Amino acid sequence: MRCLRSSPDTWKRDLAARLEALAKEGIQPHQVLILAPHKPETLGLKDGQALGPWPLNAIRDWWQDEKAGHVRMGTVYAFKGLEADVVIYLAPGYRHADGPRLAYTAYSRARHRLIVLEKAIPQPVRPKAVEIPPARAVARPEAPQVRSFSEAQRQNLMESLTAAKRWRPGLDLKAGLPADASHD
C-alpha cells in the first residue's frame, strides 16, 4: 500500500501523475481501477476524458471491448465485489459519514497494489433544496345550509321514500298490485 498526500486543489494533477507512472511501469489501463466516494461526474470528470496517458471509462459496468484502452473509474460501491491489479483510492478530504467502510471496501479491491491519494476529494457541492413556501391558510368550507320543507313537501317526500323502500320489480306502487294486473 502506498499513501500519497494530495489535496482538493491538486488531486486531478496528482492522479494523472500516478497514472503516468503506472503506464511507464508497463501497467495496462484495464488493470487499473480508480475508486472514489462519489460518482466521476460529481467530481467534474467525464467519460472519455483524458486522465494521464489514458482516457477515462466512467460508465458503470462497462469495461469490455471498445473501452479496453480506458482506465475504469467509479464509486466504491459500484465496484463492490470486483477486483483489479492496481487500485487507486481517492480518499475524501473531509469527514465522510461512511469513511472507514468506504476505505475498507476500496482497499479490499486491490489484488497487487493499492495507491491512496489522501485528503484528495473535496466535499461535493450539493444543490440547495428548493424551499417550498408555507401553505396558505385554507378557508374551511361553509357548513351546508339546512333546507326546511313545508308540511306538504315533507309529506310528499316521505311518501316517495316509503314507496321506493317497498318497490320490487314488476310491482305497481300506486295500486300495490303486480304491474300486469288489470285495474277495475
Provide the fold topology.
Elements: E1 2-5, H1 11-24, E2 32-36, E3 50-51, E4 54-57, E5 71-75, E6 84-92, H2 99-107, E7 110-121, H3 151-166, E8 171-172, E9 177-178
Parallel strand pairs: 1-7, 2-5, 2-6, 4-5, 6-7
Antiparallel strand pairs: 3-4, 8-9
Q: Could you please describe the fold and organization of this structure?
A:
The protein is elongated. It is built from three helices and nine strands, in the order βαβββββαβαββ. The strands form two sheets. It has a seven-stranded mixed β-sheet. α2 (99-107) links the parallel β6 (84-92) and β7 (110-121). The chain has a domain at 2-121: Rossmann fold, CATH 3.40.50.300. It is α/β, with parallel strands linked by helices and 184 residues long.
Keywords:
about 180 residues, seven-stranded mixed β-sheet, two-stranded antiparallel sheet, Rossmann fold, alpha/beta
Question: Can you describe this structure in just a few lines?
Answer:
With 184 residues, the protein is an alpha/beta fold. It has three helices and nine strands, in the order E-H-E-E-E-E-E-H-E-H-E-E. It has helices spanning 11-24, 99-107, 151-166, and strands at 2-5, 32-36, 50-51, 54-57, 71-75, 84-92, 110-121, 171-172, 177-178.
Largest sheet: 7 strands, mixed
What spatial form do the alpha-carbon principal axes imply? elongated
Mean pLDDT: 83
Q: What's the total count of β strands? A: 9
CATH architecture of the domain at 2-121: 3-Layer(aba) Sandwich
CATH classification, class level of the domain at 2-121: Alpha Beta
Number of helices: 3
Instruction: State the fourth-level CATH superfamily of the domain at 2-121.
Output: P-loop containing nucleotide triphosphate hydrolases
InterPro entries: P-loop_NTPase, UvrD-like_helicase_C
Domain UvrD-like helicase C-terminal: 70-116
Protein name: UvrD-like helicase C-terminal domain-containing protein
Organism: Geothrix oryzae
